[in-house]
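Lecture notes, unit on protein representations.

Consider one protein chain, 278 amino acids long.
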Amino acid sequence: MGGRDPDQIWDESVVEGNRRLSRGTIGLAATGLVGGVDVMFGILALTVVSGALAVAVPEQIAHVTGSLVFGIGFVLLVVGRSELFTENFLVPVGAVLRGVGTTRSLARLWAVTIAGNLVGVVAVAAILTRTGVVPPEALKAAGELCDTVAARDVGAAFLSAFLAGTVMTLFTWLTHAVDDDGARVMISLLIGFIVAAPSLNHAVVGVGEMAFGLLADTAQQATWADLAQNFAIAAAGNLVGGLGFVTLTRVLQVRGEPGVSAASVTSGEGSVRDTEAR
């Protein structure tokens, strides 16, 4: 099978993770803010397309079709090098496991990035809901999307968040597995569809979707309390899915590669194969 070996992907992830952990607080905040703005543009594309189609076709068909363009937000993220909270469940964690980053710097990265993400999505949502900025059909679609997210019970919301964290951390792995932006664009669009079509419970995307519908006053059932509750559930589920499933299984995968020692994956510096050779 072609493509890069898992240990090569892991080594590159560790280097990138160390870079992210070493950034200053202002840089982290700016990167997170732009990441929130980027993903909100994906939500905008989704609601404009689904809202327009809902005039002529059933709502479910309109939503699934609109989900095809949601990945535009992920394209902006990947090509523009901004970040979402969930993109930091693999790369900087790898740096911490290798010993080139600290848990304190990881906690700082997570906290500052999620704060920037949330400010970005809510700020753009507020702009979009000003009268005349987007078509009324898009605002209606935003309300329906908001109600969809809020309607889940706690168990369903957590499981949906688990899947969202799994998909997004897989997204991070895949973007490091390829070498050109064309492939990253295709991966971004595909992952975007997987997240948007079933409205998976992503902490940042969910806040953007719900804030859009609530600020537009087109949500029929959801409240700001629902948004706060769902964010907490989504963040927890994303962490479990991203860290507890994908990151763990990738570590085990890399450890199983020929010529790679188990200890070198999570300790020492340099290539896991170089460490084995030394």
